[in-house]
Amino acid sequence: MRKPGSMKGLEAFGRVRLSPSFFMRDFLYSEISSFHGIPNIPDNPDLAIASGTKLCTELLEPLKANFGDLSIRSSYRNATVNAYGNKHNLNCANPERAKGRHVWDHLDGNGHMGAMACVLVPWFTDKYAAGADWRALAWWIHDHLPYSRLQFFPKLCAFNIGWSEVPDRRIYSYIAPRGCLTKPGAGNFAGDHKEWYQGFPDVA
């Protein structure tokens, strides 16, 4: 697919279905793009579609099947939008590190395809507001889904969830206890962690 060069082209691109529940348009909105007038259009639409399809089918659809509707807080950014956000301290990663994460249409530094979205799970957001520990959801995802990276944030317990063809399997958080929860080789990485998520829905 060509890079959209018109409103009609962008409209057609937004209609591309990534999975049973998600279309490309669900991931294109960006406050940075909207407020600063920088079009959030991929340089490589085919790569954005391929990586976004993996993100949706392998991670977001299973989350939705188990917990109900998801809210997409931030997702695809083209390289220009991400670079502007990083330069102006708008919560965007270094341009090179963002490739294969929020910048879906560029391979990462090792030449691997990947995609990331910042989402929240309303079912868990309510529990978090009532005092639930963010690690309950983190460990559920760790035990059940082929994520590459997770990163949790204090507001509404939103989190980045990333897919990669070569997953890192690392979990980080800005919620206490801050830092790295687990990574390959850590003593808590292997095994199941079901004691953390008692009362969660049965796996769909």
Protein model, in words:
The protein has 204 residues and is an alpha+beta fold. It has one domain (7-196). It has helices at 7-14, 31-36, 45-67, 79-87, 95-98, 122-129, 134-144, and strands at 71-74, 114-120, 149-152, 159-164, 170-173, 179-182. The protein has a 6-stranded mixed sheet. Strand 3 and strand 4 (159-164) form a beta hairpin. The longest helix has 23 residues, at 45-67. It is globular and about 50 Å long. The termini are far apart.
List the helices and strands and how they pair.
Elements: H1 7-14, H2 31-36, H3 45-67, E1 71-74, H4 79-87, H5 95-98, E2 114-120, H6 122-129, H7 134-144, E3 149-152, E4 159-164, E5 170-173, E6 179-182
Parallel strand pairs: 3-5
Antiparallel strand pairs: 1-2, 2-4, 3-4, 5-6
